[in-house]
């Protein structure tokens, strides 16, 4: 771990490799956190730089370039055209080619991997802080260059330990990469940032046998509530006059969509009318062929259950606001922002009884084990009855990002 004292006006170096690599894709929770760090650090007046790993090496942005990049992620400025280098690189999506081309146009400096230390030494004030929020680019090469080239200290955001604790839910290669990444973080970070005390406890359990753990900063995530869209796309066969529930998230094993399909199959077969509809809002992920097959072939799909991928944040807010409730049967969550966002909108939440929800939402949701579908059926129909009876929405105050950054930045000393 680097130990040089922080100067009074330290610089920040924010790694933006993950965001650029995922240009054109629906943002995940980790993407949203990295975006929040970009937004917040741009508000300050400290020297600020962005580091991006591209297909051809590294690019360094100053505050102006980062602001321009933020405008592209926000959609207020369109992405530029691909350049010659992007067109030469096979295997990149068109949005990523355009994003990397813009990064090169906006960069104040670029280098091949072996010259990263020299580039940082030439352009970044010494003694600052390097933030890695999305785990992309969190390599020995980068950590060494950051410390040697910029004399920077390192702050890494660890969102959860799910790949270690639930390897069966991961896509190929994640588990093999995650353990070594955590070992690098333990050995080389000056601080670890966590989203919850539950994640902190998980990290201490996983990292403790390896040796001393860097100081951990716990700061709950901010919740941004967009203005709901005026309209949202109704899937074919959806009945707007019939109540519906929503589940949000990538269709992957950890999110437990198969459990909800079992719940709905039983409701359709044995439940009393009216049977609510289920909207599955999320793209198809990995290792979930049995669920995908059900979504493609089950007779209740297109009649009682509907897939609705690709919604914007504003459309998601509109869907949630119109729904009878959010259902979240996940086996594990690092933070579970959708449940918090739904609760902030006054939408009933039914979720698996996970410790992180007890920490962040207390007694707001209804909790039910995913070991049995029947309590879920009963609670779903009870929520539906409450909605018909006009029960008053229970709104909650949610943490803002200012509180998160006040906690984090005040601890980086």
UniProtKB/TrEMBL annotation:
This is Glycosyltransferase involved in cell wall bisynthesis. It comes from Lutimaribacter saemankumensis. The keyword Transferase applies. Keywords: Transferase. Residues 233-363 form the Glycosyl transferase family domain. PANTHER family: GLYCOSYLTRANSFERASE WBBK-RELATED. One of its GO terms (molecular function) is glycosyltransferase activity. Coiled coil: none annotated.
């Amino acid at each position: 771990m680097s130990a040089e004292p922080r100067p009074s006006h330290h610089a920040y170096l924010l790694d933006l490799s993950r965001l650029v690599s995922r240009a054109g894709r629906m943002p995940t929770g980790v993407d949203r956190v990295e975006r929040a760090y970009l937004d917040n650090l741009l508000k300050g007046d400290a020297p600020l730089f962005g580091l991006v790993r591209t297909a051809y090496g590294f690019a360094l942005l100053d505050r102006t370039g980062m602001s321009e990049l933020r405008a592209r992620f926000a959609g207020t400025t369109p992405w530029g055209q691909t350049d010659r280098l992007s067109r030469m690189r096979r295997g990149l999506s068109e949005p990523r080619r355009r994003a990397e081309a813009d990064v090169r146009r906006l960069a104040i400096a670029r280098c091949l991997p072996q010259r990263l230390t020299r580039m940082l030494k030439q352009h970044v004030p010494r003694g600052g802080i390097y933030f890695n929020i999305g785990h992309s680019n969190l390599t020995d090469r980068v950590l060494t260059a950051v410390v040697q080239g910029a004399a920077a200290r390192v702050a890494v955001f660890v969102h959860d330990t799910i790949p270690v604790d639930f390897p069966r839910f991961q896509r190929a290669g994640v588990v093999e990469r995650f353990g070594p990444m955590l070992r690098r973080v333990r050995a080389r970070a000056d601080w670890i940032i966590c989203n919850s005390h539950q994640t902190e406890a998980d990290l201490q359990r996983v990292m403790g046998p390896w040796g001393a753990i860097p100081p951990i900063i716990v700061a709950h995530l901010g919740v941004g509530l967009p203005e709901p869209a005026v309209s949202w796309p109704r899937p074919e066969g959806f009945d707007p006059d019939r109540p519906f529930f929503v589940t949000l998230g990538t269709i992957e094993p950890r999110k437990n969509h198969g459990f909800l399909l079992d719940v709905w199959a039983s409701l359709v077969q044995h439940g009393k009318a009216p049977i609510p509809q289920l909207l599955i809002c999320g793209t198809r992920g990995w290792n979930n062929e049995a669920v995908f097959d059900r979504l493609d072939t089950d007779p209740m799909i297109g009649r009682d259950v509907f897939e609705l991928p690709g919604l914007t944040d504003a459309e998601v807010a509109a869907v949630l606001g119109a729904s009878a409730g959010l259902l979240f049967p996940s086996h594990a969550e690092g933070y579970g922002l959708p449940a918090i966002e739904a609760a902030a909108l006054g939408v009933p939440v039914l979720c698996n009884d996970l410790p992180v929800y007890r920490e962040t939402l207390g007694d707001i949701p209804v909790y039910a084990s995913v070991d049995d579908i029947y309590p879920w059926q009963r609670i779903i129909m009870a929520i539906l009855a409450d909605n018909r009876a006009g029960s008053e929405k229970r709104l909650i105050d949610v943490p803002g990002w200012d509180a998160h950054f006040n906690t984090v930045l005040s601890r980086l000393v």
